[in-house]
């Protein structure tokens, strides 16, 4: 796991965009794992800017969403498919049908989850998975207690996550209780995991993810056993890291040929 501590969200978005732009230059048909939430919005804005500047094309790429609410109407603005369409897809050149997500409106949820897993495998697996982290250490919507080997399935949100996400709705009551999420096993199958986290509300979860035990109590700690993980943090999100000095020194002295 490589931990990179930067000064602000703009630097984080720029570095994350560098990684994605480079991947698409090398592999134009790369499969991207797309996360929702505030943390990744800056990355998408930066990718749109670079697309407009002619630096990147998504024309041959595929995108798979991490998660989705269950029960929101197909045209609900907070449905994650709508969010990704608004924040990235409609402003770049993905082909029609190239971006998909778990179907939270399906009558047969179990079948929808299995078929989502099959679609990801049929696409060749995810090359780069963008991730945020919840204040309780969740990734995707894998709340504490999630099996480290889990696949796409239905989960029940904790009250903390519902209240954290209430800012996107009119009230906490409107936040769905149930969600579909790629499992921790699904996420771990991606070839490169790129996490972005900013602000003091994430400091404890980041500390537990990077320096705590690998445990379902902190689902993001599963990243410790993945061979290629980059964690991009601002100073506030890194504030509780015991080895912050070492991570800074390592990044500052990184050989120029070595990319994330
Ligand atoms: C949400 C999403 C996650 C996201 C996390 C943090 O509930 N399901 O994918 O990483 O919680 O969200 P934010 O970036 O808004 O803090």
Instruction: Tell me the structural class.
Output: alpha/beta
Bound molecules: 2-amino-2-deoxy-6-O-phosphono-alpha-D-glucopyranose
- For the secondary structure, the number of strands is 10
How would a textbook summarize the main sheet?
Answer: 7 strands, parallel
Determine the strand fraction and express it as a percent band: 15-25%
Low-confidence stretches: none
The top-level CATH class is Alpha Beta
Counted by DSSP, the helix tally is: 8
Under CATH, the topology is which? Rossmann fold
Q: Taking Cα atoms only, what radius of gyration do you get, to the nearest Å? A: 17 Å
Describe the protein's architecture and organization.
With 260 residues, the protein is α/β, with parallel strands linked by helices. It has a single domain, classed as Rossmann fold (3-Layer(aba) Sandwich), CATH 3.40.50. The protein has eight helices and ten strands. The protein has helices at 9-26, 41-52, 80-87, 109-122, 159-165, 184-188, 203-211, 244-252, and strands spanning 2-6, 31-34, 62-65, 67-69, 99-100, 128-131, 153-156, 178-181, 192-197, 229-234. It has a seven-stranded parallel β-sheet with strand order 1-10-9-6-2-3-5. It has a three-stranded antiparallel β-sheet with strand order 4-8-7. Strand 9 (192-197), helix 7 (203-211) and strand 10 (229-234) form a beta-alpha-beta unit. Helix 1 (9-26) packs across helix 2 (41-52). The longest helix is centred in the first third of the chain and has 18 residues, at 9-26. The chain binds 2-amino-2-deoxy-6-O-phosphono-alpha-D-glucopyranose.
């Amino acid at each position: 796991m490589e931990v990179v501590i930067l000064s602000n969200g703009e630097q984080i978005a720029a570095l994350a965009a560098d990684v994605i732009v480079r991947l698409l230059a090398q592999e134009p048909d790369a499969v991207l794992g797309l996360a929702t939430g505030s943390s990744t919005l800056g990355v998408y804005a930066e990718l749109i800017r670079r697309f407009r500047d002619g630096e990147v094309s998504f024309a041959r790429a595929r995108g798979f969403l991490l998660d989705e609410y269950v029960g929101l109407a197909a045209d609900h603005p907070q449905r994650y498919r709508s969010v990704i369409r608004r924040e990235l897809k409609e402003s770049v050149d993905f082909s029609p049908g190239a971006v998909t997500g778990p179907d939270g409106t399906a009558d047969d949820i179990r079948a929808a989850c299995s078929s989502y897993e099959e679609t990801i495998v049929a696409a060749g697996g995810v090359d780069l998975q963008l991730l945020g982290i919840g204040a309780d250490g969740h990734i995707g919507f894998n709340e504490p207690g999630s099996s480290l080997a889990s696949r796409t399935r239905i989960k029940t949100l904790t009250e903390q996550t519902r209240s954290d996400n209430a800012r996107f709705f009119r009230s906490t009551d409107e936040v769905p209780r149930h969600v579909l999420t790629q499992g921790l096993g699904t996420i771990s199958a991606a070839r490169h995991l790129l996490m972005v986290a900013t602000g003091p509300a994430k400091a404890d979860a980041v500390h537990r993810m990077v320096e705590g035990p690998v445990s379902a109590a902190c689902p993001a700690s599963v990243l410790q056993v993945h061979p290629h993980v980059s964690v991009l943090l601002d100073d506030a999100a890194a504030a509780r890291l015991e080895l912050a000095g070492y991570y800074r020194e390592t990044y500052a002295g990184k050989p120029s040929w070595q990319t994330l």
